[in-house]
Amino acid sequence: MIPVSRPYLPDRKKLDAYLDGIYERNRLSNNGPLVQELTHRLEEFLGVEHLLLVGSGTLALQVAYRALGVSGNAGPPQANAITTPLTFVATASSLKWEGVEPVFGDVDGETWCLDPVSIAPRVTRDTPAVVPVHLFGNACDVEAIEQVAREHGLRVIYDGAHAFGVRYRGASLLSWGDAAAISFHATKAFHTVEGGAIVFRHKADLERARELINFGQSGPDRISAVGVNAKMSEFHAAMGLCVLDELEECLKPRREAWHAYETALRDCACMQRRQTGVENNSYVYFPVAFEDEPQMHFIRGTLEKANIQARRYFFPALDRVPELNTSRPFSERAGDLASRMLCLSMGSGAADTQRVLETLREVLVGSGGRRGSRQGTGELPGTTDPASQADGVP
Ligand SMILES: Cc1ncc(COP(=O)(O)O)c(C=O)c1O
Predict the structure, then answer these.
(1) Nearest CA to ligand 1 atom 7
(2) Cα 380 versus chain centre, distance
(3) Domains along the chain?
(4) Ligand 1 centre and the CA of 219: distance in Å?
(5) What are the two backbone dihedrals, phi and then psi, of residue 177, each rounded to the nearest 5 degrees?
(6) What is the DSSP letter of 141?
(7) Which string of DSSP letters, residue by residue, matches 2-46?
(8) Using a 6 Å cutoff on CB, does residue 311 contact ligand 1?
(9) What backbone phi and psi angles, to 5 degrees, belong to 290?
């Protein structure tokens, strides 16, 4: 089976050298030297300050909310935060876990990120924050979100789980907002097996979070907050250091797959439009929205029969999940996109990418020429195969 994503395993000898160091020092956790080294190297690589490593991307979100005072645990009235329904469940479940009610806005129909226009109408006096997601590594409309947040006194916590290394107008996309949470799960290009980080705008917030991830302890004999254990271990940091050393090898097949899909599907308006000002990509996902849900199922089924995995990232739209939203009306654009979107296989090499594209072409021709999106021409441009160019499909 061609997997939708293949975790990157770095050179074993290099990893062993880091592990030897851990054995020699006998220091396994609690902000050890490898965690410190990875912190500095990531700050340098990403071009950010105030980065804190944690145990997962989900914990990064939870700790960021707490550090910025976004918590429902202080009792009524019930705090809420505005977020997008088109995302992984952790964006909203982490809010709920912290006692904060997620309130779902809608997405922009082209960038597929939270539409800033949908924020203000949902703000109440119990809304301390907005949690937009840089979906699939695309940038949210960060300027418009900042403006609306300023007008309504909201904290902005970006879910940047997909945005590792993405640059926006000459700087890291992760430097926007009061905080940005990143995931280093094994499915991501840069990973620490399990892990994550928070990039804070202000040092004071970083320092508060540093205590929160260590049980709320501010010194050997001092407990100054109700905290949690969200620390990254030395073993996870060792994997991160190895992957960072080999990031180019890890990104290369993903980048090639991304560009091959992009070229083959370019004129089909069923792809996410990159936000103006975004300079690169994290190359973790390649999402495509098909004509409608039946066509998406047909395509997924045919890919599966050809031993090719494609995943429904992200379905269902979270406002349809009763555990996360009991009463509010559904967001139309997010629901529509979630119903017909698939992510294609990334990073298993050029031959696999070509096989995905060839199967897609057969499927799209076989489904009676119903191709592409509602808005677009539906024509998929040809590849190097002259026969397929004549067809106008890859
Ligand atoms: C948008 C988004 N937010 C949060 C997370 C949670 O990250 P983790 O799996 O590291 O906890 C993910 C995981 O992929 C994600 O896609």
Answers:
(1) 57
(2) 27
(3) 12-245 (3.40.640.10), 248-391 (3.90.1150.10)
(4) 31
(5) 90, 170
(6) -
(7) B-SB------HHHHHHHHHHHHHHT--SSS-HHHHHHHHHHHHHH
(8) no
(9) -90, -175
Measured CA to CA in angstroms, residue 247 lies from 8, 42, 137, 204 at distances of: 9, 12, 17, 31
Shortest-distance Cα residue to atom 10 of ligand 1: 57
Give pLDDT tens digits along the chain (394 positions).
999 999 999 999 999 999 999 999 999 999 999 999 999 999 999 999 999 999 999 999 999 999 999 988 766 688 999 999 999 999 999 999 999 999 999 999 999 999 999 999 999 999 999 999 999 999 999 999 999 999 999 999 999 999 999 999 999 999 999 999 999 999 999 999 999 999 999 999 999 999 999 999 999 899 999 999 999 999 999 999 999 999 999 999 999 999 999 998 776 658 999 999 999 999 999 999 999 999 999 999 999 999 999 999 999 999 999 999 977 789 999 999 999 999 999 978 999 999 999 999 888 766 544 443 443 333 343 333 222 222 222 2
Half-sphere exposure (Cβ direction) of 329: Cα atoms closer than 13 Å: 5
The response to whether residue 93 sits with its C-beta less than 6 Å from ligand 1 reads no
| Long-range contacts, stretch 293-299, CB < 8 angstroms, 24+ apart | 293/339, 293/340, 295/340, 295/367, 295/370, 296/339, 296/340, 296/341, 296/342, 298/363, 298/367, 299/342, 299/360, 299/363, 299/364, 299/367
Q: Is the separation of the CB atoms in 363 and 274 below 8 Å?
A: no
